[in-house]
UniProtKB/TrEMBL annotation:
Name under which the protein is recorded: Extracellular solute-binding protein
Classification via InterPro entries: Bact_solute-bd_prot1 (IPR050490), DUF3502 (IPR022627)
Biased composition (Low complexity): 34-55
PROSITE patterns: PROKAR_LIPOPROTEIN (PS51257)
Location of the region described as Disordered in the Swiss-Prot/TrEMBL record: 34-62
Endpoints of the signal sequence: 1-24
Record-annotated DUF3502 domain positions: 436-503
Keyword tags: Signal
Organism annotation: Cohnella fermenti
Length: 507
């Protein structure tokens, strides 16, 4: 990134980030696409986007390697035709790095709990999807769950060249890299997506939506006239509000250095979510519903908050079979949460970390393998209509590319423009850079307190964002529990480390 694109410390980030989005891209998202809701983007140069077809880099020849099996935990339900696709993928993997791959498919709603059990048991596995919003990367690094990758990455310049140094710095903990970003859109750029047929049917003018309250009459219209349609998937905090940087979920005012609990000050928005719940705008079982995919595939959700990116609506058309309208409400920014919205880590229990890194590199650089793992087998799962365009066959294999790695390898879907990747590159290059992107907070002095605080957030955030109870009462309970969990101690430690970092990193 160019130095003149960085914010000065005296400039507030005039940005809106839905804390429940990051999600792919990140994602008030649907079930399997939470956090990153997409499969494109890259922070590297235009030249670095072109994947190597060999995927070899400096790896030894496959014939020189002993055969091994690699196990990869993936945050998605097992897709149709998975066994056949994986068998074909293993033909490439075996030829290139003399390994075979076993995918462990886990339903999105079960992924966090499943990975906690896997890690606590000491189970031997090789690779896993991790992120800032699911299977929390920073928590897992603190537990010693992942292998440091700096030395391994040096052996694979093709993969390393996908990322500018500042991007990799966003993933470092204590100066070390414990995961490789899945090369996609690197911007936090959020808003809402709406079912196009209903927007057109009721002549909804989305340009009038400037705040959460502007959505109320729109949702009411859908509720009154479409009894089988749910107006909004879930509540999404802070989508319309300016925000500053965050560290461990606490907001930082980059003018003053103040560190504070932003959720505690969000009463008005939580009151709005309570109103929406009472009006029936959310799914009736929103309190317990883990997977929204069946509702989305059935066309029963009118809108949800999502991470924006070029080609988003076209991708969703391909996934769900009907048209959507994007309505972004924020300015693009690249921050630590955005970069860590999709990562691939190598487990500390991996019997073959070197070979696991070879596989990461191969997936990132071999276009044939990447599209096979994403879209399946040509003629069975999709039809190729040009060199770089395909049409998916309904009900067949599909895995979101942002779960796997370098999505610039991906074929384009119907409706996606020929210059999709160029658009994404432009968005990444023009995005504002969070001044704290390279600040790595050392959790060690307050590790126990952070664990308690994150547990408290997990307990109260769904209640507040979905309007499940009186927000004044819940915020009071939350405040008491956050205080008991060590909030003030953590805030003081963040400020102490930030002050020291700012002193040695003048902007």
């Amino acid at each position: 990134m160019q130095a003149n694109k960085r914010f000065k410390w005296t400039t507030l980030l005039a940005l809106a980030i839905g804390i429940c989005l990051l999600v792919a891209g990140c994602s008030g998202n649907n079930g399997s696409n939470n956090g990153s809701n997409g499969s494109n983007g890259s922070p590297g140069s235009s030249e670095s986007q072109q994947p190597s077809q060999s995927g070899a880099d400096s790896s030894p020849a496959a014939s020189e390697l002993k055969p091994v099996k690699l196990v990869w935990y993936m945050r998605t339900a097992e897709p149709t035709n998975a066994d056949k696709v994986l068998a074909k993928a293993n033909e490439i993997i075996q030829k290139e790095i003399n390994a075979t791959l076993e995918m462990k498919w886990v339903e999105p709603g079960d992924y966090v709990q499943k990975m906690q059990l896997v890690m606590s048991s000491g189970e031997a596995y090789d690779l896993a999807f991790t992120s800032s919003w699911s299977n929390n990367y920073f928590d897992n690094v603190s537990r010693g769950a992942y292998v440091p990758l700096d030395d391994l990455l040096e052996q694979y310049p093709d993969t390393k060249s996908l990322f500018q140094p500042g991007i990799l710095d966003a993933v470092r903990v204590g100066g070390k890299l414990y995961a490789i970003p899945n090369n996609q859109t690197m911007t936090n750029y959020v808003g809402f997506v709406f079912m196009k047929s209903l927007v057109d049917k009721y002549g909804i003018d989305l340009s009038t939506v400037k705040s959460g309250t502007d959505l109320t009459p729109i949702f009411q219209k859908i509720k009154d006239n479409e009894p089988d349609i749910i107006p909004l998937q879930t509540g999404a905090s802070f989508v319309f509000d300016p925000v500053v940087s965050t560290v461990e979920g606490f907001a930082v005012n980059t003018d003053t250095g103040e560190v504070y609990d932003r959720e505690a000050q969000n009463l008005d928005e939580y009151k709005l979510f309570k109103e929406w719940n009472e009006k029936g705008f959310f799914p009736p079982d929103v309190a317990t519903l883990k997977d929204f995919e069946p509702l989305l595939k059935a066309g029963q959700i009118f809108s949800f908050s999502a991470r924006m990116k070029p080609g988003n609506a076209a991708e969703m058309l391909g996934k769900y079979g009907y048209e959507w309208v994007d309505y972004p409400v924020s300015t693009p920014v690249i921050n630590r949460d955005a970069v860590t919205a999709g990562l691939t880590a190598i487990s500390a229990t991996s019997p073959n970390p070197d070979r696991a890194m070879m596989l990461i590199n191969l997936v990132n650089t071999n276009k044939e393998l990447f599209n096979l793992l994403t879209y399946g087998i040509e003629g069975e799962d999709y039809t190729k209509v040009s060199d770089n365009h395909i049409e998916k066959i309904d009900g067949t294999y599909r895995v979101s590319g942002w779960l796997l790695g370098n999505v610039f390898n991906n074929y384009l879907l119907p409706g996606q423009p020929d210059d999709l990747w160029e658009q994404t590159q432009k968005a990444n290059d023009s995005a504002l850079i969070d001044p704290l992107i390279s600040f790595s907070f050392d959790r060690t002095p307050v590790e126990n307190e952070i664990a308690l605080i994150n547990s408290t957030r997990t307990q109260f955030s769904p209640i507040l964002s979905n309007g499940l109870d009186d927000p004044e009462k819940i915020l009071k309970q939350r405040d008491e529990k956050m205080a008991a969990s060590g909030r003030d101690k953590v805030i003081a430690e963040i400020k102490k480390q930030l002050d020291a970092w700012r002193a040695s990193n003048p902007q």
